[in-house]
Amino acid sequence: MEKVDSGLISIFQSSYSAPELMQSMRDISTLSGVLSDLGAQQFFQTPGEILRLLKIIQLLNEEALGLSGLIENTESIYYRYRNRYDDKEPPSQKRVDQVIQVLVKYNWISKQTRRIKMRDVGKRMMDMLIRLANDSLAYYMNDEIGRSLFQARRDSDISEAYDDQGISGGNKIASMIKHVQNAITLLKERELEMLADRHALPQLELIHELMNDLDVKLEERFKKFQTVEDSLVLTELMQRGTEVLTTGTNLSLGMIKKYLKFTNMQNTPFSSHIQPEKIRRFISSMFEPSLESDIPDVYQLLSFMEQNQYKDEAVDGLWIPVKFASPLTSGTIEVAVDYLENYEPIIDSIQEEEEDIVYANEEVSGVDLERHIAESNWLLTKEMIDTTKIEAYFEKQEQATLEQVVIEATTEQWSDAINALTAISALVSNKEIVISKGTEIREHKQYEKEWEWMNHEDGKDIVKRKRDNDHQRKSK
């Protein structure tokens, strides 16, 4: 799946020294710092304290979106909180001040003379925290099976919101399939319990509806990713996803059929005439019924049975429990037997070897330190500014006019001229080339271009490659 994500924007595919990657990691660092400082001030001791913190963040977020008036100071937040939320124990003015101080410290907000203003990094981080809390709330509003299906649906939504826009959502197709697998496992474990529950039909219908919905969503996701390059990578996922969704849909459909058949069976009149052949076929079909079949196996049949449903049934002397535990599989029994037969208790104490920490001193002269810093700055500059075309030009040309370098190294277009001048400026600052006024090159070529110099004499400046830098690079 990583190969599928290779064409998307992802931190795992970015260059380690890319400036934008470093900045994104700094954002994560500020998030860690905010949570750490707020945790040290006991803002995460109880769920109530966490909720109050999120409510304060929501007030700041609404102001940034223009949904409420300007926030002048912490007192505005304090009184706005008391007016907005029905909280029996609202945060004190001191607690609000503590939150604002931490957010200002990590540049999430800026505290101006008459306004507390949200910064971009703060808005993104606060939005993320609120979405995380809302997602968790929606997750826990479902039962155990519904939670896995909810996560699968969220994976589909995230893939649609991120992957379709060229940003990696984090292997959400594989995650979606995994959550459906977990839901199927839980559904099989609770199958007998649901069949014994007289109010489980709405839940079964909801599960089946979610399975059908996820089947459609998964197919849409595959179509979005299915290109020539991705087809080989997606083949295994497509097969697994199709198999999982088919199993889940058939399982939920079969449970609904059995449930309805059991319910209708209670209203079916008894017949005094026994047909042995039909009974034989029914018993035979109970051994290995398909998932979508309405024929129950013996465990499902006994699980659904109830006692004393009609007059004098209790005197028959037959007692059947309402719920049956799921039977152990042969594989589970084999694992348990093997564990008991081959179990060897550990009686020897664990020997811990202490390693001596060796510290090494490395001294660097001031000249070498300056050189290393200069090289690091130059590498960072090259990551942000493309200087390859200008450098390649001066590998063949010893010197030229500024206009000649700009046009011959790139093109006559205005955008290329801007990029070329930026690259020349970077090379000059790193002492790779020098620009001087002079008349060493008397002939000045004329070029057709989309732009003009504000000062025509600027284009006649002489750009030279510095020889000493070449020798230094070769010696290195």
Provide a descriptive summary of the structure in words.
With 476 residues, the protein is mainly alpha-helical. It is built from 18 helices and 5 strands. It has a 3-stranded antiparallel sheet with strand order 3-5-4. Helix 2 packs across helix 5, helix 6 packs parallel to helix 9 and helix 7 packs antiparallel against helix 9. It starts with 18 loop residues before the first helix and ends with a helix. 20% of the residues are buried. The N terminus and C terminus are likely disordered.
What percentage of residues falls in helices of 4 or more residues? 55-70%
- Largest sheet descriptor: 3 strands, antiparallel
SS class: mainly alpha
Q: Give the neighbour order of strands across the main sheet.
A: 3-5-4
How many helix segments? 18
Q: Termini, distance in Å? A: 41 Å
Secondary-structure element order, N to C: HHHHEEHHHHHHHHHHHEHHEEH
Strand portion, in percent? under 5%
What is the average of the pLDDT values?
76
Shape: elongated
Q: Low-confidence parts, pLDDT < 50 over ≥5 residues? A: 1-5, 470-476
The total strand number stands at 5
The Cα radius of gyration reads: 36 Å
Give the helices and strands, then pairings.
Elements: H1 19-40, H2 47-64, H3 74-84, H4 93-105, E1 109-111, E2 116-118, H5 120-140, H6 144-162, H7 172-189, H8 191-196, H9 201-225, H10 231-266, H11 276-285, H12 298-304, H13 330-342, H14 366-384, H15 388-396, E3 399-401, H16 402-409, H17 414-429, E4 433-436, E5 462-465, H18 467-475
Antiparallel strand pairs: 1-2, 3-5, 4-5
Helix pairs in contact: 2-5, 3-4, 6-7, 6-9, 7-9, 7-10, 9-10, 15-16, 15-17, 16-17
